[in-house]
């Protein structure tokens, strides 16, 4: 095989690879593949009140109880930071905590891994594409003369 033939084969091969690479690119500007536009920072996109059910179990026991409640996400002046406010009248719950929040897999994830916050516990959770939020945290609550520690979980959705 002579030198010119090698050049021609190499050039043809390179053009084919470039054609395949460009063909695999897709114009996603129409928004059909993405349920959210993410036009704002996540604390603004995810803001609002989510209605659902809290479940709590006292640490060291297996007995749990549930109650209806809300989780309200409020943006702060700092990008990627929001305040989560938890309220459930039946569980005597009313507290809030600042979290970091980010876009993730068509939804959002939020967390605060510092225990020196309002709830004195780590918190983590996510909001999926269907706008369903799930979160877990631990909280100390006074009941009478004693303080009890509970593991809380919340699942709710935005109406």
* Helical percentage: 10-25%
Number of helices: 2
Largest sheet: 8 strands, antiparallel, barrel
Q: Structural class, judged by helices and strands?
A: alpha+beta
The topology string of helices and strands comes to: HHEEEEEEEE
The end-to-end distance, rounded to whole angstroms, is 71 Å
Mean pLDDT: 84
The oligomeric state of the chains shown is single chain
Features of the shown structure:
159 residues, alpha+beta, eight-stranded antiparallel β-barrel
Structure description:
The chain has 159 residues and is α+β, with helices and mostly antiparallel strands. It is built from two helices and eight strands; from the N terminus they run ααββββββββ. Strands 1-2-3-4-5-6-7-8 form an eight-stranded antiparallel beta barrel. Strand 1 (48-58) and strand 2 form a beta hairpin. The longest helix has 21 residues, at 3-23.
Strands, helices and their partners?
Blueprint: H1 3-23, H2 42-45, E1 48-58, E2 64-75, E3 81-88, E4 93-104, E5 107-112, E6 123-127, E7 132-143, E8 146-157
Antiparallel strand pairs: 1-2, 1-8, 2-3, 3-4, 4-5, 5-6, 6-7, 7-8
